[in-house]
C-alpha cells in the first residue's frame, strides 16, 4: 500500500485527463455486472416458484428478464473493450512520445551512463503495462470487487452464517496476497532492468557485427547473450513460482469455501432454515464473492508489473532535461563567433579532471586546431564548446555571454558538427542531408550537394538522392558518408563549426575531395578542428597543443615548428611515419639521415 501511495500522484496524473471516460467506463461496468447477476438470481424463482410451486405464468417474464440482461451484458462488454482498450493504447502511445521526447532532451552524460538498448526498452516496453491502469484490467478488477459487494449483500440475506464463514476465508487469503505482491514487485522491476541490459548488449552486438566477425567473436557474444537470457529466465521462474503459489492458494480457498457451504447449507436446508432454491442461488452467488480472489492473482499480477514499469518510467521522467536548467535563461542572439575559455576545468568523475585551467581566445571567423596525443583532452574541449558538458570551474564565453547561462536551443541552432564517424540514418541520401534543415528549397539542397561533392556519386545511382543508405550509412563508403555529413552541415548554416577528425580515416583521394567542401564550409565561420593528420591544419589561425588536459603550446604552424617543442615532435614523427609507409624497408632511415630538414 505504501508503494501505491507513493505512485498515486503519477497514476492520478495519467487518470485525471481521462476521468470522464473512466466514469463512463465504470457506469458501463456497473450495468454489465448488475445484468450478470440476473441469471444466477433467477434460479431461486425457477426452482421455488416455477418448478416446485408450478407457477408457469412466471416463466415468460423470467426468460425475458434473463434474455434482456444477457443482451445488455454483451453490449456493455463490447462497449467497455472498445472504449477502454483503445484509450489504453492511446495512453501507451502518448507515454512513448513523452518519454522519447524527454530522453532526447537529457544531457550527454545520461547517455554515457545508460546503454542504448536499455533506453529503447524504457521507451517501448516499460509503458506497456500501463494498459492495465487505464484499460479493461483495472475496470475488470474494480468491477469484480463491486460485484462481490453486491453478491455479499444477497448472500447475507440468504444465510449470514455461510456468508460469514466464506468471507473469513477470503479475507485471510487477501491478507496473504498483499504480502505476496510486496515480494513479487521487486522481481518484476528487476526483470525490466535485466531485459534492458540484455537488449542493450544485443543492440551493440548487432550494430558492431563487422567488429564481431572481424575478430571471430561470434561465440563470445553468444555466451554473453546466453548469460543474459539465463538471468532473465531465472527471474521469470522466480515470478512464476510466486504466481503458482498464489494460484494454489486461490484454488485451496475455493475448495475450503465450497466444502464449508456444502456442510452448512445441507444442515440449514434439512432444518428448513433455507429453501432448496435459496441454497442453489447461494452456491451461484458465492462464485461472485470468490471470483475477485482469482482476479487479484491474475489482474493483480498485471497491475504489479504495470507499477514496476511505471517506477522505471518515472525514474527517466524525473531526470532533468539539459534545457530546463533554471540558470540557462539567456537567449543567444545571432552569433558573431568570438569564443573564449577562461581558466576552464572539467572532470567526468569528481577528483579526476581531464581539462585543467584551460584559457584561450578564438576570434570570429578564425580556425582553431587542437592537437595532442590520444586521451589528452581534445574531444572534451570540443564537447565543452558544443555545451554537451558544463565546466566545473572557469567560464566559456560566446560573444561575451557565459555559455552556462545560454538557452541551449538558441545556441545549438547556430552550431554545426562534422565528425570522423558521422552517423547516418537508415533513410535516403536526401533525408540524411535535409536532417539539418528540412525546409530548405531544392535549389539550396542541390547547391549544398555540389559544394560537398555529393552529386558526383549520388546522381550515379538509379534512385539518385532517394537511394537508401542502410543502417548507419553502411551502403556508402567512408568518403561518401563524410560528404553527406558536410552537405548536412552546409544546410545547417552554422556560425560555429566543429570538425572532429573529419578526414582522419579517409584515403588521400577522398580527403582531397572532402577538403574542398570543408574549406568552403569554414569560410567566415569560427571553426574548431581536431586533426589526426597534422598536415591538414597548417593554415589554422592558431594551433593549441593539449597534453594531460592542459594547453602546453600555442601558435601558428610555422611558429610552433620554429619553437621545436611538442608540436614539432608530433609533426616530424608523423611526417616521417607517413613517408616510411611508402618506402622499402631501410630506405626511410637513409632518407632521414640524408635529408633531415624534410622530417
Task: Provide an overview of this structure.
- The protein has 599 residues and is of the alpha/beta class.
- The chain has a domain at 2-320: ABC transporter type 1, transmembrane domain (ABC transporter transmembrane region fold, Up-down Bundle).
- It has 21 helices and ten strands.
- It has helices at residues 2-15, 19-52, 58-104, 108-113, 116-124, 131-134, 136-158, 160-207, 209-214, 218-270, 276-317, 378-385, 408-412, 429-434, 442-451, 455-458, 478-492, 508-522, 557-563, 566-580, 587-594; strands at residues 339-349, 352-362, 367-371, 393-398, 401-402, 415-419, 496-500, 526-530, 542-547, 550-555.
- Strands 6-7-8-3-9-10 form a six-stranded mixed sheet, with helices on both faces. It has a four-stranded antiparallel sheet with strand order 2-1-4-5.
- A hairpin with a 2-residue loop joins strand 1 (339-349) and strand 2.
- Helix 5 (116-124) runs antiparallel to helix 8 (160-207), helix 7 (136-158) packs antiparallel against helix 8 (160-207) and helix 17 packs parallel to helix 18 (508-522).
- The radius of gyration is 36 Å and the shape is elongated.
- Mean pLDDT is 78; it is low at 582-599.
